[in-house]
Amino acid sequence: MDHRMSNYGTRIMSSYKPPQIQNSSFSHSPLKSQDNIKKLKEKVSNLNDEISLRTKQNKEAQIIGGLMSLIGTLSSNQNPVKKPVTPPPVLPPTNQSNPEMGFLLQSFQRQQDMMFQFMLNMNQKKEKPKKKSKKNIDELNSIEETYKRIKKDPDGFRSILAELDFNDDGAEEYADKERMLKFSANLSEEEKAKILTQLEKNKIINPIKGGFKLKGIRRFRMIGIIVLLPIFLVSNMLEKKAKFYLENTKYMQEQIEVYTEVTQSWVLKAIKTVLISTINDPELDLMLSNKESEVKSQQVNSRIIKLQVRINGIIEGLESITNETHMQQPFRSFFDKYISNKTFIPMNFLTPFEKSRLEFNEFGGLANQNDEKKRMMICFFIITRILIGEIFLKPIEAGIPVTKGSRTVVNLKMIGSIMQNCTLLNFIKVSRKTGDYSVEEMELFKRKRGGKFNQINEDNVSEKLFFVSEYEPSYVYITPFIEMTKRKIYAWAGNVIKVCGDSKTRSNFK
Questions:
Q1: Alpha-carbon span 170 to 454, nearest angstrom
Q2: Bias category Polar residues: which stretches (predicted)?
């Protein structure tokens, strides 16, 4: 626009000369002299120079004036369809006898058209849409990623807090600077100074109120602490709980492996006499008959008597070595620890029969241990696992000189069946309501080979022994002996608990 306006006067003084208009009348007016034309041109030149100077000095006024003159023309361009601008018609010269004025009018008309076109082009320019800032979205994504990372790794919580730990003075300065950045561009320096002075007064008059106006990182720090602190505490507690359980379970597992071998040697010493008498009699047959016609025969009666003698010999042998002389202090301490509250026993070591009758605390340790539960654990450890599981069912592995599949192996299996059945009947009612154990007791009598039974009565050895249903007629005949054996086993288990507990009491007084 500037260079066009600067050439405004030169365009008027064009070299173009319109043709002279001749008058058709008989009398014609004489042409003006060349001096008059020269004077007129000088006046036009001076006028153009003055217009150009004023335009340069007040460009805003010139533009506003042009815009106001183009309101009518631009209103037609509001439609989405762009139409070519039709220039206004060329005005004919008002005075045919004045060709110079016609030339001036045409020059002004061309300059006006150029101004119209220029202003129209400026109005048609569209501003490009500004891209939306993703600053807030990035900040939210950063906070969410930080929260997920801390939730997966609670150990890094303290390092996150250390990064967020900065002094409150810095936060207040940051808040003041943030307010300063929000000043309007139209405010004067005096108004800005008044606002800053008022901010300082507010901080001095009411410092407590300002402390609650958390901004930026301070607010994020408080929200992070409120949200992540419970997660950190719970995760830390669960981690310590799991670590505590694993450490104690591992320790007890090692103790069980060591004292399983010690207990096996201790039991072999107790049943040494019974084993020798059973091995040295190759004709000995302790298998009970399942035929009612043979139960009262002299041969079956002889088997029952021999079986009772050996079972009584095993119990008496265990009772004879259940004392401080044959049970060293570490051995007694192990059993006392094994049956006590807050002991962490590996779950894969306990049988389903035991687990269904024991109670455990929130950390996995034993809880609410009473006398019956302690006796049950002693009998299952010594009789079920060691005497029957490691010796009677695995005589060759235990070092007993027998042949696989021989009659001696069957005799040991028969002895183990009677003793295990007595053990189950002794403790089948532990932690059971009155009358509930009668159904489970009948289940022990009705078990059959290959059949399924309640898992809460699974002891991991009965499947390898003889079921009661396989010698039921003889079992009915020896029922009084079964009851007597149950009482002896129950009393012996109580003696073991007493010996181990007494030694612990004496060691505490020393």
A1: 71
A2: 20-34
**What is the rounded distance in angstroms from the CA atom of residue 155 to the CA atom of residue 332?**
42
Nearest partner of 410 among 304, 288, 244, judged by Cα: 288
Say which amino acid occupies 250: K
Secondary structure of 82-151 in the HEC alphabet? CCCCCCCCCCCCCCCCCHHHHHHHHHHHHHHHHHHHHHHHHHHCCCCCCCCCCHHHHHHHHHHHHHHHHH
Distance of alpha carbon 105 from its chain centroid, rounded? 85
**How do residues 274-316 score in pLDDT, each as one tens digit?**
999 999 988 898 998 888 777 777 777 888 899 999 999 999 9
Q: How far apart are CA 201 and CA 198, in angstroms?
A: 5
Condensed to tens digits (0 to 9), the pLDDT of residues 489-509 reads 999 999 999 999 876 655 554
Tokens 């005075």 locate to: 95
- In CATH, the number for domain 251-509 is 1.10.506.10
- Split at pLDDT 50, 70, 90, the class of 82 is very low
- Residues 105 and 353: their CA atoms lie apart, in Å, by 120
pLDDT at 28: 44
- SS3 track for 433-451: CCCCHHHHHHHHHHCCCCC
Residues 6+ apart with CB under 8 A from 77: 83, 120, 123, 124
Residue owning tokens 């306990």? 350
Report yes or no: 422 and 318 within 8 Å, Cβ to Cβ. no
User: Which residue do the tokens 């070595």 mark?
Assistant: 321
Compute CA distances 138 → 135, 141, 145, 182, 350, whole Å. 5, 5, 10, 22, 55
State pLDDT tens for residues 328-347.
Answer: 999 999 999 999 998 999 99
